[in-house]
Design a protein that fits this description.
single chain, UDP N-Acetylglucosamine Acyltransferase, domain 1, six-stranded mixed beta sheet, 3 helices, globular
């Protein structure tokens, strides 16, 4: 959670790396909609979490308004203070995340993903670090996903995945490989250079 300007800078830097934008100074006027959304997400989190003065609270309301408008435009249902640093939304399109979900650092997430609660249970998924979530995946319920897990496209995860460094796919999701998520994430987040 962003609790200071230092945290804000760290989150913005890690998100930039995770989005494969390490060598760019700022988003392009055209084509970097997701990156601009993520910057707005982080700035909104900062202002909402850290504003104590009346002027600061007004500024937080202004950021919330802008964030809501951008979310609707891109089709994102991404609440504040859910994702750790290193968020990488692959591209815009429908994306729904429960506000009670907790997602660790370096998560890469594709369009049409749903992360939510079920059957009136107030609990939502808790997802570890370095997790890749493929297009159309559904992660539902009060479950836990271990670190370094890859979840395949259109998988439906309704039970906890306790084994780190594995790949899961299918309906319902089942383990298909001992391969971890690192091939699906930006190598720079691990301190490696990109390779083909």
């Amino acid at each position: 959670m962003i609790k200071s300007r230092k945290d804000l800078k760290a989150y913005l830097k890690q998100d930039k790396i995770a989005l494969f934008k390490k060598n760019k100074r700022r988003p392009s006027p055209f084509g970097d909609d997701v990156w601009r959304f993520q910057i707005l997400l982080r700035k909104t989190e900062y202002h909402v979490n850290c504003s104590k003065t009346p002027v600061g609270k007004l500024l937080a309301l202004w950021y919330r308004f802008r964030f809501l408008r951008r979310s609707v435009k891109l089709g994102f249902g991404v609440p504040l203070n859910v994702f750790g640093p290193g968020l990488s939304i692959a591209h815009y399109g429908a994306l729904v995340v429960n506000s009670k979900a907790k997602i660790g650092c370096n998560c890469r997430i594709h369009a049409m993903v749903v992360i939510g609660a079920t059957d009136g249970d107030p609990g939502a998924p808790v997802i570890g670090d370095n997790v890749y979530i493929g297009s159309g995946a559904k992660i539902i319920g009060n479950i836990h996903i271990a670190d370094n897990v890859a979840i395949g496209a259109n998988a439906v995860v309704v039970k906890s995945i306790e084994e780190p460094g594995t790949t899961w796919a299918g309906v319902p999701a089942r383990k298909i490989s001992d391969r971890d998520s690192s091939r699906n994430l930006c190598p720079d987040i691990f301190g490696k250079k990109e390779t083909d």
